[in-house]
Amino acid sequence: MIEKEILTRIADGLRQIGRANKVSGIYREDLKFFEWICKQNTDLIPFLNSPSVDYPKKCQAMDELFKDLLVPEVMSFLKILIRDHMIDYLPQIREEYNRLADEDANIAEGQLFTPFVLPTSQVRKLERAFSNRIGRRVILTQIPDKKLIAGIRVILLDTEYEYSINTVLEGIKKNILSKEENQDGR
């Protein structure tokens, strides 16, 4: 397994090019598209990793498959990953790229866990509230969580915000248990 620091440096190289060319968003979408294609076509990554296929043939296949679908810089970046046998790390590199690009754009991405799918208008209100709280534009990805009884849980910038009935119930449980322990200990 490769260290996260190396993956961050690789992602940062592409980010610097994207920032200089003012096309970070295009690079983000191209990487996302390529990763999606790889998930849909499960033979692609094994082909790109295959030691029995030489590098020029892999590049030719990439050119034929993605000629007008990826910008040249992303295509070159992917070919470098293929050449250096790092294409398997694309999901982690893409995640790091997105994080770095978001940092440049003063954006914070987070996860919003809810017991059921909320209307987009409510998600936007939550994004605005968290934006005001942290001073950055917030983009929340909604994730249904059947374990939540009511309320929400948000993970944003490595901090968890819990506004759910589960937290209240857990607090009541701990309070009852500590009272029982105190009575038993007398």
What does this structure look like?
With 186 residues, the chain is an alpha+beta fold. It folds into 2 domains: 4-103, N-terminal domain of the delta subunit of the F1F0-ATP synthase (Peroxidase, domain 1), CATH 1.10.520.20; 108-184, no CATH class. The protein contains 8 helices and 4 strands. The protein has helices at residues 4-21, 24-40, 44-49, 55-66, 72-83, 90-104, 120-134, 165-184; strands at 107-114, 137-144, 151-156, 159-164. A 4-stranded mixed β-sheet has the order 2-1-3-4, with helices on both faces. Strand 1 (107-114), helix 7 and strand 2 (137-144) form a beta-alpha-beta unit. Helix 1 packs across helix 2 (24-40) and helix 1 packs across helix 6 (90-104). 20% of the residues are buried. The model has no long low-confidence stretch (mean pLDDT 90).
State the helix count.
8
Shape: elongated
User: Which class of the largest domain in CATH terms?
Assistant: Mainly Alpha
Named CATH architecture of the largest domain:
Orthogonal Bundle
Order of helices and strands: HHHHHHEHEEEH
Q: Could you name the CATH topology of the largest domain?
A: Peroxidase, domain 1
Strand content: 15-25%
Estimated radius of gyration: 22 Å
Number of strands: 4
Number of domains: 2
Decide which structural class fits the backbone.
alpha+beta
Largest sheet: 4 strands, mixed
Cα separation of the termini: 54 Å
CATH superfamily of the largest domain: N-terminal domain of the delta subunit of the F1F0-ATP synthase
Helix content: 55-70%
How would you write the strand order of the largest sheet?
Answer: 2-1-3-4
Rounded average pLDDT: 90
Low-confidence stretches: none
